[in-house]
Amino acid sequence: MDKFETHRGVAAPLNMINIDTDKVIPKQFLKTIKRTGLGKYLFNEMRFNVDGSEKPDFVLNKAAYRNASILVAGDNFGCGSSREHAPWALMDFGVKCVISTSFADIFFNNCFKNGILPIVVTKEQLDQLMEDAENGANSILDVDLENQQIGRPNGEKIAFEIDPFRKDCLVNGLDDIGLTMQKGPSIDSFEQKRAAEQPWV
Predict the structure, then answer these.
(1) Where in the sequence is the domain holding 133, given as residue range(s)?
(2) Domain annotation covers residue 44
(3) What is the CATH number of the domain that holds 47?
(4) Does residue 140 lie in a domain region?
């Protein structure tokens, strides 16, 4: 998993509440167990018509936001079923950070395990960031995980809270496998000791 220390990118406004995981990545695209290739289906029903043509009014189809890497979204983002494909699709599209007033618990946890930073802000702060994000190509936000701040285009900083353990994992690029591999010497020692004491196992 890539390390997340700071990120500067275009923020896209998704001013909708209760964006569930089926909107993020519809069920028909859940047949793969690969983390790549899902970005083209992100927000599929909102981005595309039945014939596959783009819906010009959807934010990520607008020229200014095609390369957006930060989403500023309404309350309760990632609700619905607990599909890990949702953060996979976001990551594959290029989204590094999602900012909202609240997230569904399972989606929130899955983001950290896949290198995406979900940031919880107040309603007032979200309104400010949503306004920033609506400025098209000028909607650049600076996310500083180390100092736990979001830098707005006007120079103001918005502080955010994050669990220290989750912060450490993101800063060091550690997913569950990476965390386990850090214990490699202890695991090897245990296996050697068990092999000596219980060779029949």
Answers:
(1) 6-197
(2) yes
(3) 3.20.19.10
(4) yes
**How confident is the model over 169-181, as pLDDT tens digits?**
999 988 766 666 6
Strand order in the sheet with 140-144: 117-120, 97-100, 70-73, 6-14, 140-144, 149-151, 157-159
For residues 189 and 194, give the distance between their C-alpha atoms in angstroms, rounded to a whole number.
Answer: 9
- Our measurement of the distance from residue 141's CA atom to the centroid of its chain's CA atoms, rounded to an integer in Å, reads 15
pTM for the complete prediction?
0.87
Residue 86 to residue 89: CA distance in whole angstroms: 5
Tell me the pLDDT tens digit for each residue of 97-122. 999 999 999 999 999 999 999 999 99
- Nearest CA to 48 out of 37, 58, 39 is that of 58
Q: From CA 174, how far away is CA 186, in angstroms rounded?
A: 18
If one counts the domains in the chain, the total is: 1
Q: What is the 3-state secondary structure (H, E, C) of 12-35?
A: EEECCCCCEHHHHCCHHHCCCCCC
